[in-house]
Design brief:
The chain is an alpha/beta fold and 251 residues long. It has one domain (37-220): 3 Solenoid (UDP N-Acetylglucosamine Acyltransferase, domain 1), CATH 2.160.10.10. Helices cover 19% and strands 27% of the residues. The protein contains 2 helices and 25 strands. The strands form 5 sheets. Strands 2-5-8-11-16-19-22 form a 7-stranded parallel sheet, with no helix packed on it. Strands 4-7-10-13-18-21 form a 6-stranded parallel sheet, with no helix packed on it. The chain is globular and about 75 Å long. Keywords: Acyltransferase, Repeat, Transferase.
């Protein structure tokens, strides 16, 4: 005997309604977990950083974090989900009295980025990292051809990233790199050595593809109009609030 189509329609409607309710509850619950699991100076959770400035927040879930005592975070930093921050080659080491990994004020680290500081890594104020950036002060050595590379003692060199830099998605900053002020690193670039102020670097290995001349401006000249600058007087707190509003609107 054929079943009533209306019965199937009603069942499908109820099922769809239940799915929407469950999905809404799951999303609401996850947002609560994200808020509760975020790390800040007021709510450090299990993490005990050498210092963490006002307005700085590590989004939940965090990546691998160890050596917190030697990690100093400035004010109003935004550290995305699954970001790894490590000081020392492994947990439990005594690294001495001085900071090993230092982030300045207003630093943004995109989702999935790694900052590996086996020796000193310094990121100055107002640097912005896209997602999945990898910064390391350590490299494997391969001097002995008879020993597996992973078993040879690594080499370490300090890394310095100057103020106002933009590091594009998937870029790699290698040991010994020293970036000047307002450097742009293209997505996927592999940077080593010294980069002058106001330079754009791209490629693997990265090379300077554009630079600033005090008389001629950008050389080669920019092909796009200058963006509208952030109005004077806008605070980091207002920028964070605007980003959160845009995120809620997109949901």
């Amino acid at each position: 005997m054929p079943k009533n189509r209306n019965t199937f329609s009603s069942f499908s409607a109820v099922t769809a309604w239940r799915r929407r309710v469950v999905a809404g509850a799951v999303h609401a619950g996850w947002r609560w977990v994200q808020r509760a699991g975020a790390v800040s100076a007021e709510s450090p959770g299990r993490l005990r950083f050498g210092s963490i400035g006002a307005g700085t927040k590590l989004a939940f879930p965090q990546g691998t974090v160890f050596g917190e005592e030697w990690i100093h975070l400035g004010e109003h930093c935004i550290i995305g989900e699954q970001v790894t921050l490590t000081a020392g080659m492994m947990p439990g080491l005594d690294l001495g009295p001085d900071p090993i990994l230092r982030l300045g004020n207003g630093v943004v680290l995109g989702r999935g980025s790694h900052v590996i500081a086996d020796t000193t890594v310094t990121v100055a104020d107002d640097c912005y990292f896209g997602p999945y950036v990898y910064v390391t002060s350590t490299n494997h050595s391969y001097d002995d051809p008879d020993v597996p590379v992973g078993k040879q003692w690594p080499r370490t060199e300090p890394v310095e990233i100057g103020p106002g830099c933009w590091i594009g998605t998937g870029a790699v900053i290698l040991p010994g790199a020293r970036l000047g002020r307002n450097v742009v690193v293209a997505a996927g670039a592999v940077v080593r050595g010294e980069v002058p102020d106001h330079a754009v670097v791209a490629g693997a290995p990265a090379r300077v593809v554009r630079g600033w001349d005090a008389e001629k401006g950008w050389q080669p000249p920019l092909r796009t109009p200058a963006p509208v600058p952030i109005p004077q007087g806008v605070t980091p707190e207002q920028l964070v609030a605007l980003a959160e509003l845009e995120a809620r609107t997109a949901e």
